[in-house]
Design brief:
InterPro entries: NAD(P)-bd_dom_sf, NmrA-like, NmrA/Isoflavone_reductase-like. The chain is α/β, with parallel strands linked by helices. It has helices at 14-24, 60-67, 85-102, 119-122, 130-144, 162-165, 197-210, 228-239, 250-259, 264-272, 285-289, 296-304, and strands at residues 5-10, 29-35, 49-53, 72-75, 108-111, 151-157, 160-161, 173-176, 179-185, 191-195, 217-220, 224-227, 244-248. The radius of gyration is 20 Å and the shape is globular.
Length: 306
């Protein structure tokens, strides 16, 4: 009989709760959800799901000893973290891997919070997004520390969450009553990769289950990769309405940000108008594994009730 695999899932927000049902279905697996106040998430507990108190801002030596108890650690804490936490966590994981090796246990498998764009390319967004820069630093840390001796790590770049593409505050698909405006970041040929959060959980569980060739490397997922021209066509097709098309060039986005230099959404828009935010679906892990995923048109049909 196979020994039970213990997975620590850090965080129970939108992404963590999307991961949970897929991870908990894996055979011979117990998922422990690490949150600050377990009592607030008691509804998540199940036959092979339990909760534990975890504060990622706590002392590093204690956290490293805690992490060493698990076979897999998956971070789903999101962007609401204080500066330095993702780097702190990566260092603690490396220490936990050393502790496991000293105890004669197998390597710890680490999935850092990298569920987004390709931070190797975006970097810190030319100074606009320090947390993006920190994500790049975490990748460099894992590579440079010869983590393979103690830890195997997998970064999964997912693009943005598919729901985000249609959020009103993002301003790309802007619905004002019966009128719809679709805006292009940079130009109409510029592309964006998106993955639905449920699909991210589905793909992640397959990667964990099959222990596929994902050790110490970046892998990619995509529910879809579309140009902004294709997005506008999709919205027109699904809604049956002509949409207004508006192009936000990099120069326009720079001018808009200059008016409000602390506006986070305007920073995001400018970064997403640059490179590192899309990749070919045929190069993704979900394509290679044959995992069915939601594309933009299917998602839009559900959103618009088509």
């Amino acid at each position: 009989m196979a020994s039970e695999k213990h997975i620590l899932l850090i965080g129970a927000g939108e992404l963590g709760t999307a991961f949970l049902p897929h991870l908990s279905e894996l055979p011979d697996t117990h998922v422990i959800v690490g949150v600050r106040t377990p009592s607030k998430y008691s509804q998540l507990a199940g036959p092979n799901i339990s909760l534990t108190s975890l504060d990622t801002t706590g002392p590093s030596d204690e956290l490293a000893q805690n992490f060493a108890k698990y076979d897999v650690v998956i971070s789903a804490t999101g962007f609401g973290q204080a500066a330095g936490i993702v780097t702190k966590l990566a260092k603690e994981i490396l220490e936990a891997g050393k502790l496991r090796k000293q105890a004669g246990q197998g390597k710890l498998w680490f999935f850092p919070w990298q569920w987004g764009v390709d931070y190797d390319i975006t970097g810190d967004g030319q100074g606009l997004m320090p947390l993006f820069g920190e994500q790049k630093d975490v990748r460099d840390l894992l590579r440079a520390e010869a983590a393979g001796a103690y830890v195997k790590w997998t970064v999964m770049s997912t693009g943005i969450f598919m729901s985000f593409l249609f959020e009103q505050f993002w301003g790309i698909v802007d619905r004002q009553g019966d009128n719809i405006t679709v805006r292009a970041l940079r130009d109409w040929d510029h592309k964006v990769t998106v993955t639905d959060v449920q699909d991210i959980g589905k793909i992640l569980s397959r990667v964990v289950a099959e222990d596929m060739e994902a050790e110490n490397r970046v892998i990619y997922s995509a529910g879809d990769t579309v140009s902004y021209a294709q997005l506008a066509d999709i919205v027109e097709r699904v809604t049956g309405k002509a949409v207004v098309r508006e192009e936000w060039t990099i120069q326009h986005l720079e001018k808009e940000l200059a008016k409000e230099p602390d506006n986070l959404i305007k920073k995001y828009r400018l970064v997403f108008a640059r490179d590192g935010v899309w990749w070919d679906k045929k190069l993704t892990v979900n394509h290679k594994l044959g995992v069915p995923v939601t594309d933009v048109e299917t998602y839009a049909k559900g959103l618009f009730g088509a």
